[in-house]
């Protein structure tokens, strides 16, 4: 009884029956009252006609005896007789009986039709909800490809579409979670394997216990420590729990500080880093996070721009300031472009070294935490342009 289609069917049936009963009662009462008035008036007319017939019979020798009209008060022949167990029924009474029977049959037919229609409509409404419930149970059982057919009324169809959108998002999140676990295991396995192999070799006397071997092990522990720190920062940023110290920041000083950190590395590979001569606006940001974002983007640009030029520019767009890092490097493969800000994503030519594949993902998380946006544009064969936005401070 607690199912929606049963309740809807009962509701439709109840409304149909109540409506039919009320109409039948009112129709029977009104019709019977009016019909009885009609019978009374007709009897009065018949009585008047009998009286006139009796008066005329006095003048005619062949008339019926006085007080014996050929028709009774109900206008029936006098020679019509009824058995004692069956009271006489006038045509008017038989008409009313037939009318009541017709109303009862109409009520039953209307109630049956209402029940059938109510059942059909209720099942039409309840079927998508039942499918949605089944899909939710399947999805809870980790059947991530389960979806529902969008059907039914607009409201139920909206619920179906919302469920499918939620299912798509959860499936993507589950895929990312699995990939993240696999990537973390892969990234940790490499330094752990190196450390385990070197320590085993030292214990077996293959490698002497020298400072060079200790330094190698220390480098691997630093790589692991950096990976764990990056993962923690990324988790805090994506969870909205990254502590921020938002304040007014002079963009010129922040960019100059970032360039100074890469001056020696740029000089070593003969790469020029410059800031365009434009009025740099003031932004609302966390200065430490801003410098870290610039560090990640400049480090990425410097890696692919040996002997080239990196240009940093800033422009104000409405309530935001957009910072652009333009390089003249080798550019980005179209296949890599959509995935640059994914966690642990690295191009085939950048897997060597201490790159963990989290730099751009962390930069994206930090920029979005400060209320901005980040993106990349590829200049085919002429380098690439990374950009991000920050909230501008009104003068």
- Range of strand content: 5-15%
Task: State the oligomer.
Answer: single chain
How many distinct helices? Answer: 8
The CATH H-level superfamily of the largest domain is Histidine kinase-like ATPase, C-terminal domain
Give average pLDDT, whole number.
Answer: 76
> How do the SSEs run, as a string of H and E?
HHHHEHHEEHEEHEE
Helix content: 55-70%
Instruction: Please state the second-level CATH architecture of the largest domain.
Output: 2-Layer Sandwich
Distance between the termini: 67 Å
Can you summarize the main beta sheet? 7 strands, mixed
CATH class term of the largest domain: Alpha Beta
Tell me what you see in this structure.
The protein has helices at residues 4-58, 91-140, 154-203, 211-238, 251-261, 263-268, 287-303, 359-369, and strands spanning 247-250, 272-275, 282-285, 309-317, 320-327, 374-379, 383-392. The radius of gyration is 47 Å and the shape is elongated. With 395 residues, it is α+β, with helices and mostly antiparallel strands. A hairpin with a 3-residue loop joins strand 6 and strand 7.
Summary of the model, kept short:
By secondary structure, this protein is an alpha+beta fold.
Q: Which labels suit this protein?
A:
Helix Hairpins; 7-stranded mixed β-sheet; 8 helices; single chain; Heat Shock Protein 90; 3 domains; elongated; alpha+beta
């Amino acid at each position: 009884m607690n199912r929606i289609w049963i309740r809807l069917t009962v509701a439709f049936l109840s409304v149909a029956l109540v409506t039919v009963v009320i109409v039948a009662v009112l129709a029977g009462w009104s019709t019977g009252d009016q019909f009885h008035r009609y019978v009374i008036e007709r009897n009065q007319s018949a009585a008047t006609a009998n009286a006139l017939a009796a008066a005329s019979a006095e003048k005619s020798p062949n008339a019926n005896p006085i007080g014996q009209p050929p028709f009774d008060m109900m206008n029936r022949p006098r020679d019509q007789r009824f058995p004692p167990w069956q009271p006489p029924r006038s045509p008017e009474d038989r008409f009313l009986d037939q009318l009541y029977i017709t109303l009862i049959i109409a009520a039953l037919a209307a109630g049956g039709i209402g029940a059938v229609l109510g059942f059909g409509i209720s099942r039409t409404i309840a079927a998508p909800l039942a499918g949605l419930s089944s899909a939710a149970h399947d999805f809870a059982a980790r059947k991530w490809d389960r979806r529902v057919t969008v059907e039914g009324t607009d409201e139920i169809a909206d619920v179906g579409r919302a469920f499918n959108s939620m299912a798509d998002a959860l499936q993507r999140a589950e895929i990312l979670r699995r990939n993240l676990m696999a990537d973390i295991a892969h990234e940790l396995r490499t330094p752990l394997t190196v450390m385990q192999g070197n320590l085993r070799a030292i214990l077996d006397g293959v490698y002497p216990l020298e400072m060079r071997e200790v330094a190698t092990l220390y480098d691997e522990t630093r790589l692991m420590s950096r990976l764990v720190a990056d993962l923690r920062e990324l988790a805090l940023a994506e969870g909205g729990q990254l502590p921020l110290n938002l304040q007014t920041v002079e963009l010129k000083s922040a960019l100059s500080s970032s360039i100074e950190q890469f001056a020696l590395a740029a000089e070593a590979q003969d790469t020029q880093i410059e800031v365009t001569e434009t009025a740099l606006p003031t932004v609302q940001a966390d200065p430490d996070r801003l410098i870290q974002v610039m560090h990640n983007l400049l480090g990425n640009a410097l890696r692919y721009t040996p002997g080239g030029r990196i240009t940093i520019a800033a422009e104000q767009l409405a309530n935001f300031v957009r910072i652009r890092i333009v390089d003249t490097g080798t550019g980005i493969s179209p296949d890599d472009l959509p995935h640059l800000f994914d966690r642990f994503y690295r191009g085939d030519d950048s897997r060597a070294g201490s790159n963990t594949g989290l730099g751009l993902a962390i930069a994206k998380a930090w920029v979005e935490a400060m209320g901005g946006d980040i993106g990349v544009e590829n200049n085919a064969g002429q380098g690439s342009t990374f950009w991000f936005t920050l909230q501008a401070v009104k003068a």
